[in-house]
Design brief:
single chain; alpha+beta; Calcium-transporting ATPase, transmembrane domain; Calcium-transporting ATPase, cytoplasmic domain N; eight-stranded mixed beta sheet; 22 strands; elongated
């Protein structure tokens, strides 16, 4: 090494580079401020109508009604701001968890600095357990191994060798043994050394992936798109009727300002402006419900979209598996033993293997395979040598020529040395000088373990009685002890979760960087159909058209590079699938963002993965995905019920707004009445629909078609039938009251109360597509709270004189209220008899 390398950067030079090149951190997307969220919400047509009505009331000298309308207008804005701001705060907290410190040499002295202050040219001092703060080249070191699973998806550590003064040749990519390249965010699991930083922040491997995410357009939520189209369509219709009503009122009655109010009331009655509000409420409540299962929703609409997912693409390492190595099988003397997590004692024939594996490992290991030996040895009686009587004398590390490592120990009370070795089976066999049939048996056993997806190590031991230890491992006379098969264990909840996905008609596809044999073994254990496996090499040779055909049947993709994951997701999307993608590593981030629903792991996941995702599993539990799918389907079902109800209730509202204009009768509604109906009762009722329990078959039906409309033809027809019947009943009450000679304010109160009670009937009818009236009355405490609140508000409007004056209501008597109740009950009974005729079409 040069003198500069030994002394590191000068502090002044490092400060200048930090100023010129920026801090060593990933670029962060701009945070959504409350003001930006407010601007997005108030673009909806509903707010324009309410603001216009408020302006007219001010022009008429009625600031009280104008103020009430403004209160209604801010309701959904507050809901959206609170939910989105909460999500942003949680994400900021997650980002703060990943800011490692670094030990560098500056001015010839070791200094501990913040990771963000590392600059290009810094000399890093690395040891076991350190996280690499930036991309660097190893310039010196011994036995360095790093865990690069966040970048490659493979849990097995890779060996590193110093560069030896040579410039790196070819592309610098993660993965591969005996290379000098270290990458930001990876973990040193063995050895120690020094490395020179050559890339920081957005110029690192992690940073390049993060910057590439900005070029990927996030798929807009299908439900939001459909809702926006519905609202705009109804807005156009409502605007046309409003203009016609204003002209009709002004020309025939001469009151243009009153005509404007009547036109606005008619427009509001025709346009179901509650749709975006109800969608916001459902998504916010869904996010809250699922947060109790420790799932964070960055984009609430993704919960509903996940309920429509047809394909779930999942990474293996850290998602299906626990991202830690454990000993799954041991083989010695021609016998094989499968190990389980609850095994307390090993037979003596196999206990020696674990003992020697521990002796060949570090006392405090970081390497996941060495941790596996210690973990297995701790609860069981395998100690052939007392731990307190052992003293480590010398370590023999891995070399590119000999993939084995040994430790030499002294034992209190015994002369000489005890030596234990572990490593690649062929290397251990060479140290033991195996040959002939014995060597063939070891190779066959190792190959059998490898075919079943295990990482295989050989274990050997030796005794040495000389005074001076040999210079290399080949100087010992080793005896072969046996083979150890290590595996990254499956999460215990995964098989059940995958089976439930299959029942729900969702195809699970595993995409991993591991070898095909390992990938297929894990797939079989998890319950994924592994008959069609595609390797990264095969995928490279496929055209986009060929890949689009292959993804229809393939369930396992192995040895896949990050850019290939993105290509697989895009091929599935082009085939018409609704794609959900899980992952935790930086290599998953582009595909997470490109998928319809990106699901990141919050515990082990990186900042880049979380930023690219729609949903973050805070407990890293794959089974939480099934919970989210179940909730997503429930949300969609209940949302259709709520939308159908809203459409149904708008028919009598619009009819009662238009009827007096058409025949010159007294107006029933002004904007204050419409605002009361649509901004208090309907949104509150949407909360009641959101609280409805899931349908019994919610996870036994196939996902809905991606292009299926939110309001199907059958649902629209059923809603119109409900609305027309409600209008006929309430309109009949209104006309009968007029012909009976009741005062205008009493007629208005009678019609309004009748509408409220028929509204309640519509709620009961739309609670379920299949349940009868008796079933619909049960359960849902929120519904009964809603009905009680509505009754209290309506009673106040009728009994409290100031409120009665505001709504221009007259007093109602017992017989009047009986007529109103009869309209509501009659509608409920009629629709309950008609529902079986529509049931099958509504559920499809």
């Amino acid at each position: 090494m040069t003198n500069k390398t030994l002394t590191g950067l000068m502090a002044s030079e490092a400060a200048e580079r930090l100023r010129r090149e920026g801090p060593n951190e990933l670029p962060r997307p701009p945070r959504r401020t409350p003001l930006r969220i407010i601007i997005e919400v108030v673009r909806e047509p509903m707010f324009g109508l309410l603001l216009a009505a408020g302006a007219v009331y001010l022009a008429l000298g009625d600031p009280q009604e104008a103020a009430i309308l403004m209160v209604f207008a801010t309701l959904s804005v507050s809901i959206a701001v609170i939910q989105e701001s909460r999500t942003e705060r949680v994400l900021e907290a997650l980002r703060d968890l990943t800011s490692p410190r670094a030990l560098v040499i500056r001015d010839g002295q070791q200094q501990r600095i913040a990771g963000r202050d590392v600059v290009r040219g810094d000399l890093l001092v690395l040891a076991e357990g350190d996280r690499v703060p930036a991309d660097a080249t190893l310039v010196s070191g011994h036995g360095v191994q790093t865990d690069e699973s966040l970048l490659t998806g493979e849990s097995v550590p890779v060996r590193k060798q110093p560069a030896g003064g040579q410039a790196p040749m070819g592309p610098v990519r993660p993965g591969g043994d005996d290379l000098p390249h270290l990458f930001s965010g990876t973990m040193v699991v063995a050895g120690q050394g020094m490395a020179e930083v050559h890339a920081t922040g957005g110029r690192s491997e992690i940073g390049r992936i993060g910057l590439a995410l900005g070029e990927i357009e996030t798929e807009p939520p299908r439900l939001a798109v459909q809702t926006r189209v519905l609202v705009r369509s109804f807005a156009a219709i409502g605007l046309g009727f409003s203009v016609a009503a204003i002209l009709l009122f002004g020309l025939l009655r001469g009151g243009w300002l009153d005509g404007i109010l009547a036109g606005i009331a008619l427009g509001m009655s025709l346009m179901p402006e509650e749709f975006p509000l109800v969608l916001t409420v459902f998504m916010a409540m869904g996010a809250w419900r699922i947060s109790r299962a420790r799932v964070l929703t960055r984009r609430a609409a993704a919960i509903e979209t996940l309920g429509a997912a047809t394909v779930l693409c999942t990474d293996k390492t850290g998602t299906l598996t626990q991202n830690r190595m454990s000993i799954a099988e041991v083989s010695a003397g021609g016998k094989t033993l499968q190990l389980s997590a609850d095994r307390a004692v090993l037979p003596s024939a196999f206990a020696l293997i674990v003992e020697c594996g521990v002796l060949a490992s570090k006392l405090t290991p970081f390497d996941p395979m060495e941790k596996a030996f210690h973990s297995l040895a701790e609860p069981i009686a395998t100690r052939a040598y007392p731990p307190d009587g052992l003293a480590l004398v010398r370590e023999y590390g891995l070399t590119p020529r000999l993939l084995a490592m040994s430790n030499a120990w002294t034992v209190r009370g015994h002369a000489g040395f005890v030596v234990a070795a572990k490593g690649a089976p062929e290397a251990i066999a060479g140290l033991c000088r195996l040959a002939g049939a014995e060597l063939d048996r070891v190779r066959d056993a190792a190959d059998d373990m490898a075919r079943r997806g295990m990482r295989v190590l050989g274990v050997a031991r030796a005794a040495f009685s000389g005074a001076d230890l040999p210079a290399s491992q080949t100087g010992f006379s080793f005896s072969f002890v046996g083979l150890v098969g290590l595996a990254d264990p499956l999460r215990p909840t995964v098989p059940g979760a995958i089976e439930e996905c299959r029942t729900a008609g969702i195809r699970v596809v595993m995409i991993t960087g591991d070898y095909p044999v390992t990938a297929e073994a894990i797939a079989r254990e998890a319950g994924i159909e592994s008959g069609d496996c595609v390797s990264g090499e095969q995928l490279t040779q496929m055209t986009d058209e060929e890949l689009a055909k292959r993804v229809r049947t393939a369930t396992v993709f192995a040895r896949i590079m990050p850019e290939q994951k993105l290509r697989i997701v895009n091929a599935l999307k082009s085939a018409g699938e609704v794609v959900a993608m899980t992952g935790d590593g930086v290599n998953d981030a582009p595909s997470l963002k490109a998928a319809h629903i990106g699901i990141a792991m919050g515990g082990r996941g990186t900042d880049v993965a979380r930023e690219a995702s729609s949903i973050v599993l805070m407990d890293d539990d794959f089974a939480s995905i099934v919970t989210t799918i179940r909730l997503g389907r429930r949300i969609y079902d209940n949302l259709r019920k709520a939308m159908g109800y809203i459409l149904a209730v708008h028919v009598p509202i619009a009819g009662l707004a238009l009827l007096p204009l058409a025949f010159g009768w007294p107006l029933i509604f002004t904007p204050i009445h419409i605002a009361f109906l649509e901004m208090v009762i309907d949104p509150v009722c949407s909360v009641a629909f959101e609280a409805e329990a899931e349908e019994r078959d919610v996870m036994r039906r196939r996902p809905r078609a991606p292009d299926s409309p939110l309001l199907s033809g059958a649902l629209v027809a059923w809603s119109v039938v409900q609305g027309v019947l409600a209008f006929v009943l309430v309109g009949g009450v209104y006309v009968a009251a007029l012909y009976a000679g009741m005062p205008d304010n009493e007629v208005r109160a009678l019609a309004f109360v009748s509408l409220i009670l028929t509204n309640a009937a519509l709620i009961f009818v739309n609670r379920s597509f299949s349940a009868s009236l008796i079933q619909a009355v049960r359960g849902n405490r929120v519904l009964w709270l809603v009905l009680s609140t509505t009754g209290a508000l309506l009673g106040g409007a009728l009994a409290w004189l100031p409120a009665r004056g505001l709504f221009q209501f007259g007093p109602l008597h017992a017989d009047d209220l009986a007529v109103c109740a009869g309209a509501g009950i009659g509608l409920l009974l009629i629709l309950d008899l008609l529902k079986p005729l529509w049931r099958r079409r509504l559920e499809s």
